[in-house]
Model the fold of this input.
Amino acid sequence: MRRVRLILAYDGTAYRGFQVQPNGPTIQSAVEEALSRLLCEKVRVGAAGRTDAGVHAREQVVDFSDSGKRPLETIRKGGNALLPQDIRILSAEEAPPGFDVRRDAREKEYRYFLHLSPVASPFFTRYAWHIEKPLDLDALREGLSHAAGEHDFASFRGQGCTAKTTVRTIFRAELSGEMPPLHFIRIAGNGFLRHMVRNIVGTLVDIGKGKMPPGRMRELLELRDRALAGPNAPPQGLFLWKVTYRIKETA
Done:
């Protein structure tokens, strides 16, 4: 059996998330159906991160096993011919022996886009959270700085999270300007809890609106109480941006 690794990009607007669900289309079900048809064998894929409904991915990494009868380039081209246009296979390669798409991930980077403007843009509405009133970006940036490092992120744990521990390490937490009024929050770490990034962003936006001081972010990490943090930011602004691995990128 051959182990294959794919890099996917997708617009999550029309999907119930990555993982197969009984009540609607998902990225996983679409990819598995296309690959099974192409390879004439049943395919089951694993993913580096299980993005939620409406969340996008610039570089999602998935892996699966097959009999190795089709060339990798055929998987890329043929898979894209069978997939809907809002899901693309960017690359296909043979994975190293023992590769595990989740366990071997060293770092995952998410970016959350904010559109700060009095009027919503038809070009950003599917890919950014539109915020009409101005935000104090310096306060937001200060609040964000408290998220870096190893912390217990229980205050930002989403309902239904089944993680055994809520301690995670954030390597980078930054606010950047893409092309104002479009900004993005970059958060990279060794792992994330369910809705963790969106709950952090919702809290930061409250800080930017002056509803709480920047130091409240540090307090929330210590209090470990989700009910005290800000709202869950809407899904359309969130992208799984990149996944980095601790092993060689080629077989």
Q: What stands out?
A: The longest strand covers residues 167-179.
